[in-house]
TrEMBL record:
Its main location: membrane. GO terms for cellular component: endomembrane system; plasma membrane; proton-transporting ATP synthase complex. Keywords: ATP synthesis, Cell membrane, CF(0), Coiled coil, Hydrogen ion transport, Ion transport, Membrane, Transmembrane, Transmembrane helix, Transport. This is ATP synthase subunit b. It holds the Pfam family ATP-synt_B. F(1)F(0) ATP synthase produces ATP from ADP in the presence of a proton or sodium gradient. F-type ATPases consist of two structural domains, F(1) containing the extramembraneous catalytic core and F(0) containing the membrane proton channel, linked together by a central stalk and a peripheral stalk. During catalysis, ATP synthesis in the catalytic domain of F(1) is coupled via a rotary mechanism of the central stalk subunits to proton translocation. SUPFAM superfamilies: F1F0 ATP synthase subunit B, membrane domain. It is found in: Cell membrane; Endomembrane system. F-type ATPases have 2 components, F(1) - the catalytic core - and F(0) - the membrane proton channel. F(1) has five subunits: alpha(3), beta(3), gamma(1), delta(1), epsilon(1). F(0) has three main subunits: a(1), b(2) and c(10-14). The alpha and beta chains form an alternating ring which encloses part of the gamma chain. F(1) is attached to F(0) by a central stalk formed by the gamma and epsilon chains, while a peripheral stalk is formed by the delta and b chains. F-type ATPases have 2 components, F(1) - the catalytic core - and F(0) - the membrane proton channel. F(1) has five subunits: alpha(3), beta(3), gamma(1), delta(1), epsilon(1). F(0) has four main subunits: a(1), b(2) and c(10-14). The alpha and beta chains form an alternating ring which encloses part of the gamma chain. F(1) is attached to F(0) by a central stalk formed by the gamma and epsilon chains, while a peripheral stalk is formed by the delta and b chains. Belongs to the ATPase B chain family. InterPro entries: ATP_synth_B-like_membr_sf, ATP_synth_b/b'su_bac/chlpt, ATP_synth_F0_bsu_bac, ATP_synthase_B_chain. It comes from Caldimonas caldifontis. The chain crosses the membrane at residues 6-26.
Length: 156
């Protein structure tokens, strides 16, 4: 066999194999590679989008947490103010009630002092009459000397 004919036959077979590969084998392979590359690109884009959404969601959560903290602190401050106002009102009412009780006790004490003075005047008047009876050695009539006894009571 001739080496040139073999080379030419090999070139022809190689050309046919190349044409067959380029026509029927290569397009599905490139199509599969392109599809795979597109899927990878879509996956990376989706991952970037999800990462951005996650960052946005985290930022919104932080804002909501800050807002709820502010609201909670406002509510606590308001509750403390209300509690202090209630305590102050209770102290004021207790003070007023205490003043009323002290005033009532003073009034009652004054009344008892007046009653005690009246009772003491009566006793002093009775003792004065008895003393006068003993000094005069005769009976002093209270109804006859009522005017005198009343003056004596008022002087005491």
């Amino acid at each position: 066999m001739n080496i040139n004919a073999t080379l030419v036959a090999q070139f022809v077979v190689f050309g046919i194999l190349m044409w067959f590969t380029l026509k029927y084998v290569w397009p599905p392979i490139t199509k599969a590679l392109d599809e795979r590359a597109q899927k990878i690109a879509d996956g990376l884009a989706a991952a970037d989008k999800a990462k951005a959404e996650l960052a946005n969601a985290n930022q919104q959560v932080q804002q909501q947490l800050a807002a709820s903290r502010d609201e909670t602190s406002k509510l606590l401050a308001d509750a403390e103010r209300r509690a202090q106002a209630i305590i102050d009102e209770a102290k004021k009412k207790a003070s007023e009630e205490g003043e009323k009780i002290v005033a009532a006790a003073r009034a009652e004490a004054d009344q008892q002092v007046v009653q005690a003075r009246e009772a003491l005047r009566e006793q002093v008047a009775t003792l004065a009459v008895k003393g006068a009876e003993q000094i005069l050695q005769r009976e002093v009539n209270a109804s006859v000397h009522a005017d005198l006894l009343n003056r004596l009571k008022t002087e005491l």
